Amino acid sequence: MSGGLNTQTEMEYCDTHEIHRERLQKVNEGMPDEEEISDLSDLFKIFGDSTRLKILFVLFEEEVCVCDLAELLNMTQSAISHQLKVLKQSKLVNSRRDGKSVFYSLADDHVRSIIAQGREHIEE
Q: With bands split at pLDDT 50, 70 and 90, how would you rate the model's confidence at 8?
């Protein structure tokens, strides 16, 4: 097959092999280090679970306890607690004790922004 459009994968590719060093240098200068890439990858994995997303959507509206989340999402408290632990370790949610209850809330508005941008992207 010669250049242009590859009909099997519908991907375009170069007709020649030419390295554009100035472009690569610019990219390398702006590229995060491996640790930051790994941390970002881990963060986005957190958003890859539908239960965690549902929990975050609940927390957009109201601070709630594990019992409330379990009732609302029709899940066990144990399952909800496990997901909240993951979200808390990732610094996406905060907790506070009030008597015998522990209430969860969004850690900050960044969480809302990340999900809002994701929603905008899929709606395009």
A: low
**Amino acid code (one letter) for 116:** A
pLDDT tens digits, 41-88: 999 999 999 999 999 999 999 999 999 999 999 999 999 999 999 999
| Lookup: tokens for 21 | 């060093």
**Buried b or exposed e, range 46-76, using 16+ CB within 10 angstroms:** bbeeeebebbbebbeeebbbbebbbeeeebe
- The matching CATH number, chosen from 1.10.565.10, 3.40.250.10, 3.30.750.24, 1.10.10.10, for 34-123 is 1.10.10.10
Neighbouring CB atoms inside 10 A of 23's CB total 9
**Rounded distance, CA 98 to CA 65, Å?**
10
- Helix, strand, coil % over all residues of the chain, rounded to 5: 55, 15, 25
Contact 94, 83 (CB under 8 A): no
Q: Average model confidence (pLDDT) for the chain?
A: 91
